[in-house]
Amino acid sequence: MTTTYATSSADPLNPPNFPHPLNACSRIAAWVLLPLLLWAAVTSVPATAETKQSSTIAKATANTIASKPAKRYTIEQFMATTGITGASFSADEKRILFSSNESGIFNVYTIPVTGGEPSALTKSTTDSTYAVSFFYDNDRILFTRDKGGDENNHVLVQELNGTEKDLTPGEKLKASFSGWRPDGTAFYIATNERDAKFFDLYKYDAKSYARTMIFKNEGLAVQNANPAAISRDERWIALNKPNTTSDSDIYLYDATTQKTQFITPHKGAVSFSAATFDPASKKLFFLSNETGEFTALRTYDLATGAIKEHQKADWDVVSTYFSPDGRYRVTSVNQDGSIAVNIVEAGKNSSNNIDSSNNEKPVAMPKLAGGEIRGVTFGKSGNRMVYYVNGDRSPNNLFVHDFAIKKTTQLTHSLNKEIDSNDLVEAEVVRFRSFDGTVIPSIYYKPRGASANSKVPALVWVHGGPGGQTTRGYSAQIQYLVNHGYAVLGINNRGSSGYGKTFFMADDRKHGREPLWDCVEAKTYLASLGYVDPERIGIIGGSYGGYMTLAALAFRPEAFKVGVNIFGVSNWIRTLESIPPYWEAQRKALYDEIGDPVKDKEFLIATSPLFHAKEIRAPLMVIQGANDPRVIKPESDDIVEAVRKNNVPVEYVVFPDEGHGFSKKKNQMESSKRILEFLDKYLARNAKMPT
User: Fold this and answer.
1) How do residues 606-651 score in pLDDT, each as one tens digit?
2) N or C: which end of the chain has fewer CB within 10 A?
3) Looking at domain 30-76+419-682, does it have CATH number 3.80.30.20?
């Protein structure tokens, strides 16, 4: 398991805690572009479908899940599952570089493309270490590491003799790998070492590691923008600039003239986000919802400024990038609670050169069972691709597909062999109507054995954000709870991503109100199913979901029997005042979404659970990482102290070696075990649990 919690995306309060694998020279690490409190997993529902489906349909759909009782598994058995992430081909394309927590903490491993046992290249016992890439000419590797979850990531190289060199030395700086030059002679790193608020871009020589600054992030026009993509000819750098959480722009920096151009003038709240440059460095591919509710893929001609729509779906197109040889383009679509990946092969122009704008042809994807393709990476030759398959009942597994011989090889088997995947449950997309008729899509897990004669307790699971999503996919934490008899509804309250820009903006300046009321209505929906005990429904969430948990207990104290808050905000004023300096680009967006700590102080006091803690009377559990830079430890310290004054049961767990999310197996095990014990004691007590 990558973590005991589900995952989220599109969250303005929480960038990923480790870098996304990059396989195209123009892709900048995603954490540079995102801000603050992300936790939980992605689900999307088209607006047109939402209005047509009622809670009756959702109830009928949920009841189709098999009711066969499942074998119970211990947390130790769940934790024996291996979490893996990232993928990169070696120079000879015979091995895959990836990250695994097989040792109890993430380290860097390799595995042959033909299969076999993984070999550890790093052996950290204290700090999680994540693979970035092999070098193009030999077996040196790049990797990243922070200290105890503080998110001050550094980029390091492991030499051929096994020694490590920090390429971004210094204290209190954050660095990210930002892609390779196409010939492998250089690579790019973004770092905020010059000014903690802004990220500059450097080019590193692949042999000597000598570096040159190629973009200095200064000037009023682009100072709050972040590097997002680099053209293969190194002339152009695309910059993403957030204005609000729903409005953003793209700037183009010309390294030849050293001038920056604004290319997305518009009216109203519109999202623009640079994705990648085409292999010929003639066009910028970008994502925008300017022409509709959902984001489409468009192109900007670098010579003429002409903009054209390139690819559209009924959902949000969330990413696109090219293979190193430029022959293939990989695109992901956020589709009804799942991530749909499609690949196209470029045609050729009159000069017989690859042309991404000419006659793209769909590539037949390998046939899968029990999951979705994610994280596609091509080798330099374009003859092989490595990817992950992830399903509700199956964690990430690595596969390699050889296009020449049309053969697919599974490299890993991550699920603990003691666990029968048939004892785990498939998630469902369900919908219910909230208090004002708004249709709320959710991801639902029904425990096996639940029935009208054997009613079960339930949890409303709130994702991170604001602006995250709950999606389908393997979540060890959820499967563990469901395996022990709890129904779990992963709610996508108004303000969640993936359902169109109107739905996404529906929570602006309404936190602690309408989005919370959606969660209360989720309780009504669960109670209507007939096999959920209406007297035993709790709420759980991490990050922004932790805030929603505290808000539910403080502002609607009658609604839920218990709450589990995992590193959630209790005092918006302090959180907004203490955000890390490298979130400067997102500061205005956060203030616009949540409130300005100076101008909107009274409003933020009214929506911060800490100032209303006297209303909390349900048992509360709080879990916190001591090194969390986003939701600092005093947020949890204070709410625990305040609620304990009410003579309310409060359990508080602090991990001294974690940050915003728990990456070490021992801590994942402890937190999962403590959550279940808390729920069994205060929520499931006296409940008739299915066996």
Assistant:
1) 999 999 999 999 999 999 999 999 999 999 999 999 999 999 999 9
2) C
3) no
